[in-house]
Specification:
The chain is mainly α and 99 residues long. The protein has a domain of 52 residues. 82% of the residues lie in helices and 0% in strands. Helix 2 runs antiparallel to helix 3. The model has no long low-confidence stretch (mean pLDDT 83).
Length: 99
């Protein structure tokens, strides 16, 4: 056996481990299932938050480009454009934090 060679060289003796049965086995399975569900849920939440952040960044970039364009076309609205872009940006940031 391959494992026997490693065991003899390292001086390690690996005895077979019996698996728990009955209630202990069921509890271990339940605990592992809950941990896996939490991990999947946490991962999904992080992916959703990343997608939401990416979308917000893209929207802010487009709005900023539009703002720059509008500043040249209608300079009288500079303060309003800036205020609207900042309001959107703050709202998006708050949604991301709440998520």
């Amino acid at each position: 056996m391959e494992h026997d060679i490693f065991e003899r060289r390292r001086g390690v003796s690996l005895a077979p481990v019996s698996r728990p049965t009955g209630l202990i086995s069921w509890l271990d399975t339940q605990t592992n299932n809950k941990q896996m569900q939490k991990t999947v849920s946490d991962t999904s939440s992080e992916q959703c938050r990343a997608l939401l952040t990416k979308s917000a960044l893209e929207n802010v970039a487009v709005l900023s480009a539009l703002e720059s364009n509008l500043n040249q076309i209608a300079p009288g609205g500079v303060n309003r454009y800036n205020m609207l872009i900042n309001a959107y940006t703050m709202s998006a940031a708050q949604r991301i934090v709440r998520y």
